[in-house]
Amino acid sequence: SQQGEEDPQALSIQEGENATMNCSYKTSINNLQWYRQNSGRGLVHLILIRSNEREKHSGRLRVTLDTSKKSSSLLITASRAADTASYFCATDARPGGSYIPTFGRGTSLIVHP
Amino acid sequence: NAGVMQNPRHLVRRRGQEARLRCSPMKGHSHVYWYRQLPEEGLKFMVYLQKENIIDESGMPKERFSAEFPKEGPSILRIQQVVRGDSAAYFCASSPRAGVGETQYFGPGTRLLVL
Questions:
Q1: How close does chain B come to A23, measured CA to CA in Å?
Q2: What is the β-pairing status of strands A61-66 and A71-76?
Q3: Do the Cβ atoms of A10 and A65 come closer than 8 Å?
Q4: d(CA A65, CA A88)
Q5: Is residue B77 a contact partner of residue B23, using CB atoms and an 8 Å limit?
Q6: In B18-49, which positions are buried (b, 16+ CB within 10 angstroms) versus exposed (e)?
Q7: pLDDT digits (tens, 9 = 90+) for B3-60
Q8: Nearest in space to B82 (alpha carbons), one of B59, B114, B45, B34
């Protein structure tokens, strides 16, 4: 079963608005990563947050992590049409004993110009 | 430094044929991961390899699928006797090291269509 699940499944906003996506997971983690996927392309790493961190920033991205609730959020401020993509969280579940990111289904973000 | 390369980008096969997907990791990366993505879904881990070794194949179907990462050349994901349910995007990722928090670098994917 998927370790991370993103919410909402789809999000449609206007340029300039903020976009918030959430990720919930089931078991303890060492870190959580957010990736972005443009249509028809591979995933691009955005940001990593470790289990002992509560918040992290990178440009217009802000990630929070609440290990007590087993959840994380990704906030994109002042969104742009170019932010249109799918966003995935990945946790370091160990399906066979190795540290391998395990991905959720993603949130599809559409930013209208 | 070229990124992760995958070829072909698109592959069409008829049921029963074989599909061979190739992945060349980033220069200096010795860890390769294969994922499968169905439409509107996330990536499902398939297999993790280092040079000449399969480290973790817990996500690989037991039959028809195999993977290798030889000492020289790209990693190969091989699907024998393809069925329509194998139609998906297959992504390869590489990393320079294994371990907690290592970032994976993804290729553009191979889109397999089984007719």
A1: 13
A2: antiparallel
A3: no
A4: 15
A5: yes
A6: ebebbbbbbeebbbbbbbbbeeeebbbbbbbb
A7: 999 999 999 999 999 999 999 999 989 999 999 998 877 889 999 999 889 999 989 9
A8: B114
Which chain A positions have a beta carbon within 8 Å of B103's beta carbon? 33, 45, 48
Of B35, B55, B107, which has the smallest distance from its Cβ to A98's Cβ? B55
Question: Cβ contacts of residue A68 below 8 Å, gap of 6+?
Answer: none
Asked if A47 has any chain B CB less than 8 Å from its own CB, the reply is no
The answer to whether A105 contacts B41, with C-beta atoms less than 8 Å apart, is: yes
- Residue A4: its pLDDT value, please? 72
- Taking residue B104's Cβ as centre, other Cβ atoms within 10 Å add up to 23
Q: pLDDT confidence of A1, banded at 50, 70, 90? A: very low
